[in-house]
Design goal:
The structure is a single chain. By secondary structure, the protein is α+β, with helices and mostly antiparallel strands. It has a single domain, classed as Heat Shock Protein 90, CATH 3.30.565. The protein has 3 helices and 5 strands, in the order βααββαββ. The chain has a 5-stranded antiparallel sheet with strand order 1-2-3-5-4, covered by helices on one side. A hairpin with a 4-residue loop joins strand 4 and strand 5 (123-129). The longest helix is centred in the N-terminal third of the chain and has 22 residues, at 31-52. The protein is globular and about 40 Å long.
């Protein structure tokens, strides 16, 4: 696994995406798989910056990743207190349609093969298989 430490801002959060997507392209992933990884990375990194680390510029994000021709695995950890994913409202329920919470998690789960939150909820593991 390769490891990166990223400053807690949205500009710095783009760097891991660039590196990972370059490897994904080198490994011959199709366009839809590469898009899925890009979307999930954007969502996970944004969640780490805004929700996990609370936009605190003194905090960091830790990214570990491994890309092969068969699968991409990414772990993103922030320095926040974490959360319980099961408490996030389902954004597809009528009473939550106008609420901004939960859409990123829903998208990651829709586009990836695995999305696992590790206790205490400040680390997410993302997996996309290359079929």
């Amino acid at each position: 696994m390769k490891e990166l430490v990223v400053k807690n801002d949205l500009v710095s959060a783009k760097r891991p995406e660039e590196l990972i997507l370059a490897e994904v392209e080198e490994c011959g992933y199709c366009e839809s798989a590469a898009f899925a990884i890009k979307l999930a990375l954007e969502e996970a990194m944004t969640n780490a910056v805004r929700h996990g680390n609370g936009n605190d510029p003194n905090k960091r994000i830790f990214v570990r990743y491994h890309v092969t021709a068969d699968r991409t695995e990414i772990e993103i950890r922030d320095e926040g207190n974490g959360f319980q994913v099961e408490t996030v409202p389902d954004p597809t329920e009528p009473e939550n349609i106008d609420r901004p919470n939960g859409r990123g998690i829903m998208l990651m789960r829709a586009y990836l093969d695995e999305v696992d939150y590790q206790p205490p909820g400040n680390r997410v593991r993302l997996v996309k298989l290359n079929r």
